[in-house]
Specification:
Length: 110
């Protein structure tokens, strides 16, 4: 991680801890106050847009709890698909049957 990314991250955490809205200007002013000179304004605007409308404290507290949504979405997609998985399994079984060594004249002990 570059110094610009670290400085922007720390500035965003400071603002979130104080309960202040995270904006590019506020991030830039904190970085300047810390006497970090090599941070381009693009970094602060990227961080401000990424964190806009989000509760940073809530994001930090719920880092490991985001895994439950993906299986539910996958189950809904599978239910909507209908007979597609059954057709795929049947096609796979047919391919396995066609590629058998016995059909080509090869055996385990030949």
């Amino acid at each position: 991680m570059s110094n610009a990314e670290l400085a922007s991250s720390y500035a965003a955490l400071i603002l979130a801890d104080d309960g202040v809205d995270i904006t590019a200007d506020k991030l830039q002013s904190l970085i300047k106050a810390a006497k970090i000179e090599d941070v381009e304004p693009i970094w602060t605007s990227l961080f401000a847009k990424a964190l806009e409308g989000k509760d940073v404290k809530d994001l930090l507290l719920n880092v490991g709890s985001g895994g439950g949504a993906a299986p539910a979405a996958g189950g809904a997609a599978a239910a909507a698909g209908g007979d597609a998985p059954a057709e795929e399994k049947a096609a796979e079984k047919e391919e396995e049957k066609e590629e058998s060594d016995e059909d080509m004249g090869f055996g385990l002990f030949d």
